[in-house]
Amino acid sequence: MFEIKHLRTLTTLVNTGNIRKASEALFVTQSALSHQLKELEQRLGTTLFIRNTFPVQFTEQGEILLRLADDILPKISNALDELNNKKNPVLQLNLAIACHACFQWLLPVTETFLQQYPELKIEFIEQFFPEQINNKTTVKLDILFTDEKVEHDDYIYQALGSFEVVAVLPKNQETKQSYLSNKNFLSAADFSHQTLLTYPVKSEKLDIFKFFLNKEKYKPKLIKQVANSHMILQMVAANMGIAALPDWLVNSLSRQLLIQTKHIGKKGIYKTLYARYNPQSKHIDLIEQLIPQTVAAFEKLYSHNIAAMK
Prior knowledge:
This protein is of the alpha/beta class. It folds into three domains: 80 residues, Winged helix-like DNA-binding domain superfamily/Winged helix DNA-binding domain (Arc Repressor Mutant, subunit A); 116 residues, Periplasmic binding protein-like II (D-Maltodextrin-Binding Protein, domain 2, 3-Layer(aba) Sandwich), CATH 3.40.190; 109 residues, Periplasmic binding protein-like II (D-Maltodextrin-Binding Protein, domain 2), CATH 3.40.190.10. The chain contains eleven helices and twelve strands. Strands 3, 4, 5, 6, 7, 8, 9, 10, 11 and 12 form a ten-stranded mixed beta sheet that branches. The protein has a two-stranded antiparallel ribbon with strand order 1-2. Helix 1 crosses helix 2 and helix 5 crosses helix 11.
């Protein structure tokens, strides 16, 4: 009725948000992927998702298959890993990132660590979200970098450092956002008049909504999803909208751009970044050597920013 490849396709579709991005991730043409999905729906005699929605919205029948994929695909992956490891044992650390912007400063850390251990392989899993964190069968992780701490679970949460999520505005005073320049902080109502530039993830996964706008019952005038941090900051500088990003990220990327930052709300949005790991991991020695290096790297983000501003 359906095959493993169909479950992988549906999982990719929900992770990427639309058929175009899913086809790029699967290295197939958009028309071929559309044909595969239509053929699957014909086999099953039902519609699996609603066309022309972003992010893609699945029907009740589609959700059934997604739940099946969440259950089956990790088990298949784990079984293949075990088979491959028995044939060709490889020393590997699997690192997952729930913090969308963290890849930028973590990559140099891991590259340095690999120089210390040439036999080691490091795999990154980006955009690993909270609903996956609590499912221990999803993937065999060694370290999860996240700004959400789950109480009373079996993992250790090592704090890497604290940061503030700040509003990013254009510095040009002749823009429609210029009245915001004289404010010490932005209110939720201020966002209701603005185009908000965000990462390509669902709104409920973004701090600005979880910790501020949803509580105040406001929403932006318009939301535009942008592929990466550099592009978001360039669009802000070009008066194409405002954004909410970690302060360390803005400071490290914005030295050449005409932008400014403001607190979000009177109290601001402050968070802690953690490295989450299993103390019983077979790679615990490597984990406990890598984490202090990530702590040092995170501290340098702020020390470099302070030095650059002097």
